[in-house]
Amino acid sequence: MYDVEKRGNVPIYEYLYKCIRNDIVSGRISNGEKLLSKRRLARQEGVALITVENAYEQLLVEGYIESRERSGYYVSFDAGRFVMSDYSDDSSRSSNGNIYLNHRSVNNSISNIKTDNTSSKADNTNSRSNNTNSNNNISGVIERDIPQVPDIADFVSQRLFDDAFPFDIWSKLMRKVLSDRNPECLASPDPCGLPVLRYAIAGYLMRSRGIDADPDNIIVGPGTEYLENILLILSGGGALTAVEDPGYKKMGLLCERAGHKCLHIPVDRDGLDVSVLEGTSVRLVNISPSHHFPTGVVMSAGRRAQLVDWAEREDAYIAEDDYDSEFRFSGRPIPPIAAAYPERVIYMNTFTRTLAPSIRIAFMVLPDKLMDRYRQKLSFYSGTVSSFEQLVLAEFINGGYYERHLSRMRNYYGKRRESIMRLFESKEKGSINRNDTKEKYDDTKETHDNTHTDRSYIQKQKENSETGIFVPIKDVAGLRIVLKAPDSLDDEKFIKALSDKGIKLSCINDYCYSHNSQYDHHFLVSFGAASEADFAKALPLMEKAAMECM
Q1: Crossing angle, helix 249-257 and helix 224-235, to 10 degrees?
Q2: Is 217:205 a contact under the CB 8 Å cutoff?
Q3: Torsion angle of alpha carbons 282, 286, 287, 292, nearest 10°?
Q4: Can you give the three-state secondary structure of 515-540, one letter per residue?
Q5: What would the pLDDT profile of 291-329 be if each residue is shown by its tens digit?
Q6: What is the pLDDT of residues 217-254, one digit of tens each?
Q7: 67, 164, 336, 503: least surrounded by Cβ within 10 Å?
Q8: Does a cis peptide bond (omega within 30 degrees of 0) precede residue 147?
Q9: 3-state secondary structure of 34
């Protein structure tokens, strides 16, 4: 049993989650062991059923356990491959390990880690010219001819709502920095960033992400692209670099234009397919394990183990972009790999996503060896971020304003996401009836003349799920929703039809290096700058356009 009385101020579900996780990563609960049922564990620990459900759900999300239909929960993590000592907590260890049942003999080799990317690899050989010839597509989205019509909704923009920015606090801190007459405000900025900001970032990382970062190992820059260029230089000219596919296409372009060969690694339900890295000369791999862009996949604990094992064997580095870690609306934040392996992982993040695109401040935490290499090779670099902005941001973090801002943003966008999801959940099968067909599809004929049109429409409706034409794929993080459309939809025709109506939308295939059929009919909808009203206005037009393109 676990002693919940020792949890201190930690919520019971989080304490229970940590206890089970620590038993798994330490090997006290072996790979393949069956856990107690939720009800039995709740009775044993004297806690509510919902508490156990929340703990198990977090373990599921992070890939430590798996749910088997009509059987229960089983450990799906090989402790021998990923001993996360930094995650250990002596106060949360079990006394007898009786959380599990039916000990089994299993093969713990890394080859048992499940993958389902066979079709992905085959599909990646079939490229579309408008994806592979994308050197000018620096935005990461296929360029399309946008008509000069007023936008009804922009579901592509990465912007946040203007009202979400803390204008009052930011302007107050700007005045404070100016009134303090700090000499650093006018001096040439330190190439690594002002010490006051680097110390503020280090403190924030420890509080929010469990990363014990040395402020002297933090480099501040005007964006992740700038920081990536530094990493490419430190990797050595012409080194092979790996990026996710699908993924943030700008990273691949940066690598290629810097003279580096780029390997595009497929992503499956467990994250980056590490097996593709074996036998290559890759020295730097870029990943977003906590919330992959654009699929939303969380890299499983087993896959993380495999990746770190590969990096240590090959003396390679992992650039971990903690994408969307601040916008998780359910459960605990996913622990970054850098928290456990700071000597092998480069942690990267940016304030642009949480504050505003105009605030071009990003940072990375370099391992000691790479930091020494940076000082030897690049110490002559000039500072790239305004000292004034750095001082304001440092005040914003040190004053506790940033974390309060994130809390408000999570609440704000969490409610918005729920409202948008309800729009899809409220759709019923056959939401547009026969009378609607006459008005929307053939207003020049009487109803009894529309037999063929009506039958065709009704047949198409049968292809759709009970939630309507578009089915949102479950995700609990980020400011984007993935929509699945019927297989009969012509994606390119549909996107063009929406563009003509003033609705901007992107496909997941837009973010693939080569066209991948498994992502056909999957659309990425950003709600960072789109309101519920935008969705309510756009959804009927999207449904009509989809019907016409099937």
Answers
A1: 40
A2: no
A3: -130
A4: CCHHHCCEEEEECCCCCHHHHHHHHH
A5: 999 999 999 999 999 999 999 999 999 999 998 888 988
A6: 999 999 999 999 999 999 887 789 999 999 988 888 88
A7: 67
A8: no
A9: strand
